[in-house]
Design a protein that fits this description.
Order of helices and strands: HEEEEHHHEHH
Largest sheet: 5 strands, antiparallel
Structural class: alpha+beta
Strand order of the largest sheet: 4-3-2-1-5
Shape: elongated
Number of strands: 5
Radius of gyration: 43 Å
Helix content: 40-55%
Length: 287
C-alpha cells in the first residue's frame, strides 16, 4: 500500500506539474486576457453601436471593431503605442495592466525549474531532497502567479470604478480564456507543490524505517573471535616501544653473563599429561 501511494503521488505530481507548466505557458504567450467593448446607445430604438472592441494580453492588443479593426499592436512598456482609442479610461486600463506582467513571467520560470527538478527526482528517487525542492518551487510559482492575477484584476477594477457614468455610452469588459488558463494553472501548481512535499515526507519516512540502527555499526566486542572489535579501537592499541639506550643493552648483557656462571639446577621431573577420553574435549575459549 505504501509503494502504491508513493507511485500515485509521483505520477500525480508529474501530471499536475506538466499541466500547470503548459497552461501558464499558453496564458503568457496569448492575448486573450481581457476583452473590452465600448460604444454609444441610440435613443431612438435603444440599440447599441459598438465604436471599439479589442482583446488584449500581456504583450499585445488586437482590435476587432472600430477604426483600428484588424490591427494588432505590441504593448509598449516604455513608449506609448500609436493607436486610436475611443476614451481615456480604456487607454488607462491597458496601461495599468502592464504592472502585473512580471509576476506571470517569474511564475513561468519557477514552474519550469520545479518541473525539471521534479523529473530528476523521479528518475533518481534516492535523492529525496529533490522532491522537497521541486515542491517549494511549485508553491512559489503559484504564489507569484496569484499576486499577478490580483494586481491585474485590481488595476482593471480601479479604472472601471473611476470611469464617468454617461447614459448615452456603454462599456463592457470580461476576462478571456487566457486569464482562465492562468487561474487554472495556479490550482495545478499548488497541488503539484503539496504532493511533492508530501512525497518527500513519505520517502524520508521510508528511508528512516529501513535504515539500520546505529548500534549495528559498532564492532563486536567478543573474546570468542580472533578478530575482536577491541582491535578496531585505537585507544586499546599498545603504546609504541621506544628505542633502547646503550646503557640498557649493557646492563642486560651483564645480567645474562651472571646467570650463565651460576650452576644449573636439576630440572623437575617431567609429569605426563593427563589422559582424557576421546569423547571429551577441552577448550580454552571462554565461550
Amino acid at each position: 500500500m505504501s509503494s502504491f501511494s508513493t507511485r500515485a503521488l509521483t505520477l500525480l505530481s508529474s501530471v499536475f506539474g506538466a499541466c500547470g507548466l503548459l497552461l501558464v505557458g499558453v496564458a503568457v504567450s496569448t492575448d486573450y486576457w481581457l476583452l473590452m467593448e465600448e460604444g454609444i446607445v441610440l435613443q431612438q430604438n435603444q440599440t447599441t453601436e459598438v465604436k471599439m472592441a479589442l482583446h488584449s494580453g500581456l504583450w499585445r492588443v488586437c482590435f476587432v471593431a472600430g477604426p483600428e479593426k484588424g490591427r494588432c499592436v505590441a504593448s509598449e512598456y516604455f513608449t506609448e503605442p500609436e493607436i486610436e482609442i475611443t476614451t481615456e479610461n480604456t487607454a488607462n486600463i491597458l496601461k495599468m495592466v502592464r504592472t502585473a506582467t512580471p509576476f506571470p513571467m517569474v511564475s513561468l520560470l519557477f514552474v519550469f525549474t520545479a518541473f525539471v527538478i521534479s523529473n530528476i527526482g523521479h528518475i533518481r528517487p534516492q535523492r529525496t531532497i529533490l522532491a522537497f525542492v521541486s515542491g517549494i518551487f511549485f508553491i512559489l510559482s503559484g504564489l507569484s502567479l496569484v499576486v499577478g492575477l490580483v494586481l491585474y484584476i485590481s488595476s482593471i477594477n480601479d479604472e472601471v470604478m473611476n470611469r464617468p457614468r454617461e447614459p448615452e455610452q456603454f462599456f463592457h469588459y470580461r476576462y478571456g480564456w487566457s486569464f482562465a488558463f492562468a487561474a487554472s494553472s495556479f490550482l495545478l501548481k499548488e497541488g503539484a507543490g503539496v504532493m511533492s512535499v508530501y512525497l518527500f515526507m513519505k520517502r524520508y519516512a521510508e528511508e528512516e524505517l529501513y535504515r539500520p540502527h546505529p548500534a549495528l555499526y559498532r564492532p563486536r566486542m567478543s573474546d570468542c573471535s580472533d578478530y575482536s572489535g577491541q582491535f578496531l579501537h585505537p585507544d586499546s592499541w599498545p603504546p609504541p616501544q621506544r628505542g633502547r639506550s646503550p646503557s640498557d643493552v649493557s646492563s642486560d648483557i651483564s645480567i645474562q653473563l651472571n646467570q650463565t656462571s651460576m650452576p644449573m639446577a636439576a630440572p623437575p621431573s617431567a609429569v605426563p599429561p593427563p589422559r582424557y577420553h576421546t569423547h571429551m574435549r577441552m577448550s580454552a575459549s571462554p565461550c
